[in-house]
Amino acid sequence: MNKHLKYFLKIWLIPAIAGIAIAVFLRGNFFSFVRISGQSMSPNLVNNQIVLLEKKANVSRGTVIVSKTNNLQKQNTGVQDIALRVVALPGDKVNYKKGQLYVNGKKVNQSYISSQVKTETGMSIDTGWSINSLSLSKNWPKSQRNIKKVQKNSYFVLADNRIDPVDSRQYGLIKKRQIEGVVKVFFWETKTKINNINHFSRNFFE
């Protein structure tokens, strides 16, 4: 084999192919880039924004995820995937009263949204709501009706944009199998957005 060709293969071509193969493997199994569809997470995430999706990351309270929509959600919103914030984990109790959101009786820190948006969490229900009262809705899957707490392998999620209830208030719990990954914004975003999306699970309760 020509000496120059061997040098080219050894120094450039083989490492390049290996690098591409590793990148494809990592993207297929550990992360991907996704485009946010809709305004569910506005103002922290906006329509058409590109974000990193970590497929193997742990899901905790305050984590922002991308999830596949259920059939009714898809029919009403027109989207197949939606970004939402996890509020409650399996076994948790959730309720909203007097303008405050509670998980297991503890007040949730909602500094990532404005005071005006917080009031929309109540969906104009003066007495507030609980996971039990929400689950009586015909929009919730039958298997999730009349529950007192978040079911096994499920999550209660809320949109940061609370005005249009495209989240668990309207459509029920998100199943673990629906979750495609955890959202992370890039380092060039504002410090506020990085904290609100990438790190807010650290400061979930007040």
TrEMBL record:
Gene3D superfamilies in UniProt: Umud Fragment, subunit A
Stretches that traverse the bilayer: 7-26
Membrane topology: Single-pass type II membrane protein
Subcellular location: Cell membrane; Membrane
Keyword Lyase listed: no
Keywords: Hydrolase, Membrane, Protease, Transmembrane, Transmembrane helix
Chief place of localization: membrane
Domain Peptidase S26: 12-188
UniProt key word Transmembrane: yes
E.C. designation(s): 3.4.21.89
GO biological process, alphabetically ordered: signal peptide processing
Reaction catalysed by this enzyme: Cleavage of hydrophobic, N-terminal signal or leader sequences from secreted and periplasmic proteins
GO cellular component: plasma membrane
Root EC class: hydrolase
Family: Belongs to the peptidase S26 family.
Name of the molecule in the record: Signal peptidase I
Organism, scientific name: Oenococcus oeni
